[in-house]
Amino acid sequence: MLCGLRKQDNQKVFASFSDKIYGPFSCIGCGHDLVLKKGRIKIHHFSHKPPYKCSHGAGESEIHRKCKISIYNSLQNLPHVTNIDVEVNFGTVIADVYCLINNAPVAIEIQKSNLSVNEITQRTEAYHKLGIYVLWLGLHNDKLLEPKYSAKAWEKWCHAVYFGRVYYWKHDSIVVPVHYGDYQLYVEDSSWFDESGQEQSAGGYYKSSKRYKTPNLGRELNIAYDFKPTLKQSWRGGSVYVPQCTIFGDITRKWWV
């Protein structure tokens, strides 16, 4: 986590602007003691002093921390973006980045690999109750450039929430929207003789894969300019359930057929 509470005055502080002599520090989520980590390679951050049970900061990678601070730095000086902060505790949920964009309250959440669809759904519902528009982001990876992609459960969920799009952070406040199209598997032609000696045949056609999708990348988007607050009605399709929620989605038309 990038921030902690300085115990001497209960002030929220960035790890990058802190020093051990100003400690001790505590977690903004659970109040447990934190350890300040300021090395020469990794982004300065706090971690829980073991043992602990708090989920805040759990499973957070170096790229996850880089993403948060990069979004924060790129948005903080824009005139139509105000009240920006990182790791904001709303009681029921802690936003990775929070700000007002054109006076609309927006929570930007970077998906961690250990976060389940149930947890994402619960956090999205919590933001809805708070009247905050949420933008879920994945981390851009080279596999999205390949014709065959195995989408994870959280990606399929976001695809349904954001009207056929999943957003992946690339750098600063720039994200890439991706639509998952069908991936066609070819069923090989085969023939055989049945018990009565009659020749049978099958295959020789394409069918849609249940596991794989074809990523269709849209143009790069800027969180500060290319998104708007939207009310998403509840929806269910197959095993995917989306509750009514307030989302921050892009304003572009669909680019896929």
Name some characteristics of this structure.
2 domains, about 15% helix, about 260 residues, 5-stranded antiparallel sheet, mainly beta, 9-stranded mixed sheet, single chain
Low-confidence stretches are none
Largest sheet: 9 strands, mixed
As for the number of domains, it is 2
- Head-to-tail CA distance between termini: 41 Å
The SS-based structural class is mainly beta
Order of helices and strands: EEEEEHEEEHEEHEEEEEEEEEE
Question: How would you characterize this protein structure?
Answer:
- There is one protein chain.
- With about 260 residues, the chain is mainly β.
- The chain folds into two domains: about 1-60, no CATH class; about 60-255, no CATH class.
- Helix content is about 15%, strand content about 45%.
- A hairpin with a 4-residue loop joins strand 1 and strand 2 (about 10-15).
SSE topology:
Layout: E1 3-6, E2 11-14, E3 25-26, E4 33-37, E5 45-48, H1 62-75, E6 81-89, E7 94-101, E8 104-110, H2 117-130, E9 133-139, E10 149-150, H3 153-161, E11 166-171, E12 174-187, E13 190-193, E14 199-202, E15 205-217, E16 221-222, E17 227-232, E18 235-237, E19 240-242, E20 245-250
Parallel strand pairs: 8-9, 9-11
Antiparallel strand pairs: 1-2, 1-3, 3-4, 4-5, 6-7, 7-8, 10-15, 11-12, 12-15, 12-16, 13-14, 17-20, 18-19
What's this model, at a glance?
The chain is built from three helices and 20 strands. β3 and β4 form a beta hairpin.
